């Protein structure tokens, strides 16, 4: 399929300037990629100006949350731009779409979307290490119809935001013992908007208490650690790296998988297992758990300085700890082209 480039999109790019200071996801690139699904077929994609969407107020996405998304980044890498493991995002988006009874975006269309936006926005990739062009592909059900059935029409978009890391600096985590972000047999391992909506009330509560992020427990036992709202969790105990095993309610993070690979390469012992929250707190108190951190595409690697709940605060010995620092540096070195792409993770654009 050949992609159409609207002249207004090119005009928008010409007039765009990167602001000096970037946060996360607040500055939007002035173009976006769009493809439509109707009558069982995908249209060819087009690059269009970034603009508000026209949606019928009865569109399924607005009522029944037929909405899934991805997060990946384009980096400055040598003299060009590079994507990091985008095929993993394409596959995960297909998994999320299937869970919500939406047509999976074909890998070729997904790649065309992220590669086109990256190519046309290459000048908008920030130059500082740790900053990048954050790409947000998303798929929504657009059919105007209030019956609780899957939409017959969908839009796939890729928008982009020149961004810094999601949470620079150390994080204080609140252990969420009241609510669950996902249900047993639900959508926890899919990247769907509803999971994030379910986390917002907890985030509002913990901010009032001076914390940064919720640490979610498994919905099946309310006792073992699952993940943060948009990041996976790691802890170092006696020099061994531990992360919760994938259990159906944890999102399978691309960064999580990449850090596990890098840790094994560094001869760090790695355990993917259930982590009981009260055992973890006892190990933090005794100093056996020396560091903890979270990771994700947006966050990269974010050190955790403290865990808290109604019974008190538990401070980690070091934040950032040495393992988090080594892994973060190794990951960024590959993404930003300073070290060899020895795992075949980089796709040049
Ligand atoms: C990502 O890391 O790409 C995410 O989607 C996390 C978040 C900002 C929701």
UniProtKB/TrEMBL annotation:
It holds the Pfam family Aminotran_4. Belongs to the class-IV pyridoxal-phosphate-dependent aminotransferase family. This is Branched-chain-amino-acid aminotransferase. Pathway: Amino-acid biosynthesis; L-isoleucine biosynthesis; L-isoleucine from 2-oxobutanoate: step 4/4; Amino-acid biosynthesis; L-valine biosynthesis; L-valine from pyruvate: step 4/4; Amino-acid biosynthesis; L-leucine biosynthesis; L-leucine from 3-methyl-2-oxobutanoate: step 4/4. Its EC number is 2.6.1.42. Its cofactor is pyridoxal 5'-phosphate. It comes from the Bacteria. Gene3D superfamilies: 3.30.470.10, D-amino Acid Aminotransferase, subunit A, domain 2 (3.20.10.10). Keywords: Amino-acid biosynthesis, Aminotransferase, Branched-chain amino acid biosynthesis, Pyridoxal phosphate, Transferase. It comes from Microbulbifer celer. The keyword Amino-acid biosynthesis applies. PROSITE patterns: AA_TRANSFER_CLASS_4. GO terms for molecular function: branched-chain-amino-acid transaminase activity. Acts on leucine, isoleucine and valine. It catalyses: L-valine + 2-oxoglutarate = 3-methyl-2-oxobutanoate + L-glutamate; L-isoleucine + 2-oxoglutarate = (S)-3-methyl-2-oxopentanoate + L-glutamate; L-leucine + 2-oxoglutarate = 4-methyl-2-oxopentanoate + L-glutamate.
